[in-house]
Amino acid sequence: MKHEGAAAAGLHGFVAAVLRLVRTTAFRLALLYLAMFVLSVGLILGVVYRTTAGFLEQEIGETIALEVAGLQDHYRNYGLPGLVDVVRTRSAVANNNSIYLLTTAAGVILAGNLSGWPAAVPNASGWTHFKVADYGGVTDRPSTAQAVTFTLPGQFRLLVGRDMSEIDQLRTRMFRSLGWILGATALLGLGGGLLMSRGAMRRIEAINRTTRQIMSGDLSDRVPRFGGGDEMDRLAGNLNAMLDRIERLMTGMKQVTDSVAHDLRTPLTRLRSRIELALLHETEDPEVYRSVLQDTIVEADRLLATFTALLSIAEAESGAKRQDFVPVDLAEVVELAADLYEPVADERGQRLSVDIRGKPVVNGNGQLLAQVVSNLLDNAIKYTPDGGSITLVLDGPAPGRAACIEVADSGPGIPPDMRDKVLQRFVRLDTARASPGNGLGLSLVDAVATLHGAKLELSDSEPGLKVSLVFPPEARR
User: Fold this and answer.
1) pTM, two decimal places
2) DSSP 8-state secondary structure symbol assigned to residue 461
3) Which fold would CATH assign to domain 326-470?
4) Structurally, what CATH architecture does the domain formed by 226-318 represent?
5) How far is CA 188 from CA 19, 30, 198, 213, in A?
6) pLDDT profile of the chain (477 residues), mean per 10
């Protein structure tokens, strides 16, 4: 009983696997290709038949027609006795495929090699196809004949034809071969479809297995690639790139949550402490309350700035702003940002140099691009020591780019191993802890660059940091 149960379970599993294969798109495509291939083979064999058996039948018909014309001329020249002699002579030839029969109007046989007039009715052209004998002819097989009949002057009837058993045999073999070829083609196509479906199912099942792992919470799993470089490998590559992006976003969200909880707790605690101290130390001096309220407003503004930056980054990363893209004059954006921050640089004794080379226009969001340039200038001024220099350069179109914005300073710069980390939210270098800020400036720049398809590059300015925003050629308007 156990063996019977195992056998039944194995059979059930096999049937289920076959049904899954049959329902696959690959198998259906294989069946479609099989139908087209079988149709093509059928057409080819039909052409072969027409060029062999059909050609032979046409040749036989033409030969019979010529022989009939000759017999008619012989009858006109030599009369009935001469025709009888010719028909008897030709009928007596051994191994002759020709069929002759000459009769009177009453059906009396005068000459020929047939025992009687065939019962088959001729067509409109006088041609008839009839069975001569169950076995006979040169092949000793069921013998059929194709002949033409006509009436001579004097109401004599003449039949001239050929034994068609060889042609019938050829036709039978060709139809039998056609059946075997189509059957073999169908079996091979069906087997090939099953093999193709099995291979596709194995690769798709690997994708399904990966997605189930990811849905269970394991974001590190990836779709395996088989190394063939086909469309399935390209699909796996795109899926893995998408999963990498999702993993980065999830990791970034977790970091943002942790950073918000950590970095905002201090200013909120400080804000609450100021208000609590003002309530505990009652005084009639309005300046004390004014000072507390001013400090509270400053802290509130700092918190609002942090949340505004986070919202801007979220909007940029979501791609929602891409629908608002319009042609943006980068020269105008750079000039406005330079005019805004030049007094700030002068106040710290810094020299802000602006170099605008051309007037490139790109497709983008002008407000976000202006915020990017402002963030870069704000960081450069903040981290450049007093008396240092800052350079803002706008370069026009060049091979491989539509435009380039560069901001370079003479500050301490960023170590190469930290340049990717500073693009994350709330990440600040130890040397920047003492300066005001929330660690979101470069994060916003990176998000806006990604939104516009631009490349953000951080490099050495020797000394200092140089930040380049390179717009792709397709961004040009």
Assistant:
1) 0.49
2) -
3) Heat Shock Protein 90 (3.30.565)
4) Orthogonal Bundle (1.10)
5) 19, 11, 15, 37
6) 57 64 68 77 78 78 86 88 89 80 88 84 80 57 77 87 81 81 79 71 80 80 76 82 80 65 69 76 70 79 72 68 83 92 90 90 89 90 89 90 92 84 68 58 84 89 89 84
